[in-house]
Amino acid sequence: MKIPFEKYHGTGNDFILIDQREKKYLTRRNTATIRQMCSRHFGIGADGLMFLQNKKGYDFEMIYFNSDGNESSMCGNGGRCISHFAHQLGIFRKEAKFLAIDGDHEAKVSKKNWVELKMGDVSQVEKGRGFFVLNTGSPHYVKFVKDVAKVDVNKKGSAIRYNERFRNEGINVNFVETNGKGIKIATYERGVENETLSCGTGITAAAISYAFRQMKSQSSYSIPIEAKGGNLEVKFEIEKNTFKNIWLCGEATFVFKGVFEK
Which residues are part of the catalytic machinery? Predict the structure, then answer.
């Protein structure tokens, strides 16, 4: 079977996208095929793969898989990339509403490659000794460090992801450096089991942790983020200890398209 696909990246976080509105090329059971397609040695190569499907009451539905072939929780950069893909397919013009595993999302395409994705509200943030734990559609551990460039992300991230507390369900691990204007970040992603150049839900978690750590009285934030794959921005408001109206903003870029033969 021939599977047409397009490849996108969101600040270096790369994905395979399959339009399944008219024909179902793959299902959730095709774990081995999804894993092979994402393989950088034996397939196309990607951090994850997404189905774009019809869903009544929405412009489309997003179904996301990590590179290990398993369906996973929300992916922020994936959400931005699939929104750009849907826009290019003519599914919507400027604004869209779509369904993902964590619920409803809105997306805006305002200029070339720039996509803004509305994330879910966050009302619970755990503050530990030198770290934060929160869920921004996916679970995240955020640790502030002096110099992100000096962190062995795979070694330290893996140790936290596989410790006794997080081993079973896994957690994404973010190392964050403040730089006066905003933050720098490096992320170890579960499911990929490696560092990725950018992680949308991780960037969102880091921005919220940054604001939580500041303990300022301001009610709205716009935080510039420097990931290893590029620059993004996270905007949100704080109301009664809840982070609301959260928008993950940045470029979503088409790379190439092709056909995979199964």
Answer: 75, 199
